[in-house]
Amino acid sequence: MIAKKEEKLKAVELRKGGLSYSEILNLVPVAKSTLSVWLKDVGLAKKQKQHLTEKRKLAQIKAKEACRAKRIKITEEIKSIARKEISGISEREMWLIGVALYWAEGSKQKSNNVSTRTIFSNSDPLMIKLFLEWLKKFCKVSSQDIIFSVYLHESVYNRRQEILKYWSNITGYPLSQFKQVVWKKNKINTKRKNIGVNYYGLLRITISRSTNLNRKISGWIEGICQNWGVV
What we know:
The protein is an alpha+beta fold. The chain contains 8 helices and 4 strands; from the N terminus they run αααααβαβαββα.
């Protein structure tokens, strides 16, 4: 009984000193329910409350960082295994990959407009690099026939030269082939998150005199569908 009284007194003093319940339990080995009863009438000064609030926030930040580190580790482990599954890509597979990319991101022939040029748009620099290589290797497109346009939000107007240089470096093409910047009006209540320093807009690749190439790619796409039985 005396031991319990001593533990209670110690717990009260520690609480008055600004310690949290968890910290007190590490020093006073009792049940949390018992500690709650002992300390229910123990008030804290404003400074002590602020101290506890700051410690709780710090603990939350540390927990969040630990979860993030765990997610990053798991992600890298999964990606590492997945990368090994791509042991090699044949030229035919690379050709089909390019066709699929264009199917997803390229301009299409329409019944009311059968003279559409070959146009591909995306914001992923790796996809852009791959598609440009595909154009040269499998479609025999000349570098001089490639024209670039960049689509940007008005909020990055002051970064336009930086962004143009970025895409020039990514593509390996001179700024002289970047013919147009298209400005998009910002929405007041936008929920977009790609508006920081890592925002480089969308790059549009247009091939001059490429209507027949677009028709050919359309035929390749139809061939994929027919061979897979999804027509």
